[in-house]
Specification:
Helices cover 24% and strands 27% of the residues. The chain is of the alpha/beta class.
Length: 250
């Protein structure tokens, strides 16, 4: 199995590289780390099982868009051909139409709009003076699944995205903030492209989802690294997130 980690020098704001490390510890997979000055391997190879990219700063978003823009049509074709992506945190905003800054006093004369790749029909509004944090409890269900998988995690955002056209969410919401302020879903799912605003070690926190993902990549009956401890922590967190008086958005 081969995992490509895109731009790890900037896309690790909340320790997202722990997701790639966990896959490597669990399977011994090969990891390709593609730097900002390198061409993504998935554009020229057909043996990449997963492309991963995590949260970054606002300036890093601009740099990543700049690097990927020349390859936009190739990326679209790769998604259509079924290439598997897992994109977390604000990295998903890169694939939308634009990111608009809504705090004019912070712009210093700069253009408030950062053009995204425009691969998916949504736009993002950024308010650097209005961060919100949220716990997240959702459900992941694929066609043919007998039971949905509970998903737990965290959001921490200066931004909020809005769908301009119908987009299938990655997760349904049980509690917490989703992709849109009033939306019923979190993230984006199109073919094998998965993106979510959940930050940090998503795969470490959600071993059932990690097992599903690995099975989809052909890793059958795999034992996760520290599996017993990972499942115990997951069940404990799920129990805590189900407490009726637990605050979620703050």
């Amino acid at each position: 199995m081969i995992v490509e980690s895109l731009y790890p020098e900037v896309a690790d704001l909340y320790g997202e590289l722990g997701n790639v490390m966990y896959l490597q510890r669990s399977t011994g997979c090969q990891v390709i780390e593609t730097g900002l000055n390198q061409e993504p391997a998935f554009l020229t190879r057909n043996d990449i099982d997963l492309v991963y990219m995590g949260t970054m700063t606002e300036r890093a978003q601009e740099l990543v868009i700049e690097r990927l823009e020349p390859h936009k049509e190739e990326i679209i074709q790769s998604i259509e051909n079924g290439q598997r992506f897992l994109i977390t945190g604000n990295a998903l905003e890169i694939f939308g139409k634009e990111i608009e800054d809504r705090d004019p006093e912070l712009l210093g004369g700069r253009d408030p709009v950062t053009r995204g790749l425009g691969i998916f029909g949504f736009h993002t509004e950024r308010r650097m003076l209005h961060r919100f944090n949220s716990l997240f409890h959702g459900k992941f269900r694929e066609q043919g699944m007998q039971d949905a998988i509970d998903i737990v995690g965290f959001n921490s955002q200066f931004t909020q995205s809005f769908r301009d056209e119908e987009l299938k969410p990655l997760f349904s919401i049980v509690r917490g903030r989703g992709f849109e302020p009033e939306g019923s879903g979190e993230g984006i799912r199109y073919r094998n492209f998965m993106a979510t605003y959940i930050i940090g070690p998503l795969l470490v926190l959600n071993p059932p989802f990690t097992k599903y993902l690995l099975q989809e990549m052909g890793e059958k009956d795999v034992s996760l690294a520290c599996e017993e401890a990972a499942f115990a922590a997951y069940e404990k967190r799920l129990q805590e997130y189900s407490e009726p008086d637990r605050g979620f958005v703050y």
